[in-house]
TrEMBL record:
Domain of life: Bacteria
A GO molecular-function annotation: DNA binding
Domain HTH gntR-type residues, every copy: 26-98
Lineage: Bacteria, Bacillati, Actinomycetota, Actinomycetes, Micrococcales
CDD domains to which the protein is assigned, alphabetical: WHTH_GntR
InterPro entries: GntR_C, TF_FadR/GntR_C, Tscrpt_reg_HTH_GntR, WH-like_DNA-bd_sf, WH_DNA-bd_sf
The keyword Transcription appears for this protein: yes
Keyword terms, alphabetized: DNA-binding, Transcription, Transcription regulation
Protein name (database record): DNA-binding transcriptional regulator, FadR family
Length: 257
């Protein structure tokens, strides 16, 4: 029934019902997470700073030390702190920023549940890498750019070794792709690329089971890598984007055989 103060179509009654629905109680450790986030945003905490000890944080927030430990563990998994035992400036929980590790941990678990598929991760990687290739500004005179291109060439030289172990090839391959994506100058793309790589690294390693089947695949990948780097080095963003798409789609198709 509508209230007297509102039009017939008012939603006051619905809002009253909604307001009676109990909201989930915040978990105790969330107070610590919110406090640390606020201090990071304000600049009170910065990279390299050491967090106060468990007892201090527990007293500050009126929590148990167990709840504080829960918060620190979450920050560790998210790549926001590094924890270590002992004493000194590097002991305890120190503020860092490694977003890829936190994103990868979440993605790996969701891929394992099969709610996110490897195919979807690969498609996301294609979108990011091709976009990064087209957005990259390659100035041969720029020292930082030159250093990245030289590093990429060095990675390909290592991958050209026919005696290289498959696991090492995959690790170098991943570094090569993340390095090229970094030329776009976007830290979020770089972190996402690294997290996508880590989230399906096991699936990639297990996708081609025998060394006999791997050898011809590796030969094609080597050729594709050199073509991609040549296009990137020449500042041919659209060409590099096209080659990256073909390269990733081809390898994914090979893993599905």
């Amino acid at each position: 029934m509508p209230c007297k103060a509102c039009p017939a179509a008012c939603s006051c009654e619905d809002e009253a019902v909604t307001s009676k629905i109990a909201k989930p109680a915040p978990r105790a450790y969330e107070a610590v997470l919110q406090s640390i986030e606020a201090e990071l945003r304000s600049g009170a905490l910065k990279l390299g700073d050491q967090l106060p000890g468990e007892r201090t944080l527990a007293e500050k927030h009126g929590l148990s030390r167990a709840s504080v430990r829960d918060a620190i563990r979450i920050l560790d998994v998210l790549g926001v702190v590094r924890t270590s035992t002992g004493s000194g400036p590097n002991a305890g929980a120190v503020i860092i920023s490694q977003p890829a590790s936190g994103l990868a941990a979440a993605l790996r678990l969701h891929v394992a549940t099969r709610q996110l598929t490897v195919g979807e991760i690969v498609q996301t990687r294609i979108l990011l890498e091709t976009g990064a290739a087209e957005a990259a500004t390659v100035d041969p005179e720029d020292e930082a750019t030159r250093a990245k291109l030289d590093e990429a060439a060095g990675l390909l030289e290592l991958m050209d070794d026919p005696e290289l172990a498959r696991a090492d090839f995959h690790a170098l391959d991943a570094r090569f792709h993340v390095l090229l994506s970094s030329l776009a100058g976007n830290a979020v793309i770089e972190a996402m690329m690294e997290s996508l790589r880590l989230s399906i690294s096991d699936y990639v390693a297990e996708s081609i089971r025998s060394d006999e089947a791997w050898e011809p695949v590796a030969d094609v990948l080597r050729t594709q890598h050199h073509g991609i780097l040549a296009a990137v080095s020449a500042g041919e963003g659209k060409r590099a984007s096209q080659l990256l798409r073909e390269h990733i789609e081809w390898f994914y198709a090979e893993t599905q055989r």
